[in-house]
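Case study 2.
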Amino acid sequence: FAAERLGRPVKWVNTRVESFLSDVQGRDQRNTVRLALDEALRFLALDIETIADLGAYLSSFGPFISTGATASTLGGAYEIPAIHMRVRGVFSNSVPTDAYRGAGRPEAAYMIERVVDQAARRLGIDPVALRRRNLIRPESLPYRNGANILIDCGDFATVMDKALALADVEGFAGRAAAARQRGRRRGLGVAYYLESTLGQPTENARIALNEDGSVTLSVGTQSNGQGHETVFSQILAERLGIAPERIEYRQADTADLPSGGGHGGSRSLQIGGSAVVRAAELIIERSRRIAGHLLEAAAEDIEYDAGEMSPRLRVAGTDRSVDLDEVVRAAFDPQRLPPGAQPGLTETGNYEREHFTYPNGCHIAEVEVDPETGAVSVVRYSVVDDFGRIVNPLIVRGQVMGGVTQGLGQALLERTVYDESGQLLSASFMDYCLPRADDVPAFDIALYEDAPPRTNPLGIKGCGEAGCIPAPPAIVNGVLNALAEYGVDNLDMPLTPHRVWQAIRRAA
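Prediction:
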């Protein structure tokens, strides 16, 4: 409005305090969780009562996060035949709550993973053994749980066993004894998570092979640091057999594509990458028709050989061939095109999600607690994640590390505080504690690729939000394991030193 009134660009730049007072925040709930088991310690039913703080007014996704988004993975990777959930949204004096990395799935994972640990403690059974007994079995897949969620694939017990080995759980007792000699209490926390990839279900990608030899890749997704420009170009380079440096990457530009779904819900590679694959397939099909005309052969007899960055199209069973660059040059020469063909070599691929995918994994946090101060340190963190097929392992590991760090912040450090009159007390980073480098341990990360989905051409499940989902319950379970000798069996996040110290003193 101001720009229109003044006839010149207007930009709003707010201060940090103004951000704290006005920007949306995430995850403000009170949950009551009940888990029923039979005599064989098999899960029978899960019942959840949630009071969800929506803030002073509604945000775009606020009501959905605590309802539909949480319900999308309710019950996790366990066989639970009956699930009931009741959510009441309430208004408060705080800023609105909205989508924050994971958006509903961290809430679902926290509820089931905390109550499983609680059940194991009360029943006197090892929490890992209780999880293993109830994980969805391979013979049960595809499995539809009590919340009507259809989980199509996974190898949950194998993933958990690999995580236990990676974390050297058998050596934990020795490390705990060494910590005790230093006056610390060491705890081990396990969390198995199930994620459902959400976000817009359709995506487009446009590929143009240009006359000058360059290739333009346009996608409807929008990267905000996930490395789309690397991964999408990598997919295209591998499909066509061209050098990545030839690719010009464009994203979220309506001059190239009329629509796009941006990012969110761990959807980008699953849906956007599949759209790139579809567009590449159309490029190959069109190239075969042009090559067939050049080689005086039927298009169906032309084979596309991606080769090693020197793609060729050849007549099957012969040595007659033409390279892709020659096909591109012919595509811009009306005299060399098949009858009726339009000049140029550009195609747009569309992909619509066939089915939700379910990334999953087991995270194990090893923590140390100083009983004199309540300070908590995460000293080891082990991850085995099943994201389906991996395109770029380095980027995936970075995504996991970033997500776990955000989960650590939620579990131990980050808290928005208002006083009784509604005055915000934590309105700066002097008062609101974000994780720093020395709060984060080294990560042991392994990726499991042996259970890919068949519902998208890349066999991808998604990875963007995964780390943020299991980290809070894994870390909290670890802290409560360390405090078991004091009789502390429940603490609400964040587990700040003051809260932990108070819990120890009350128990004493």
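DSSP finds 13 helices and 16 strands in the chain.
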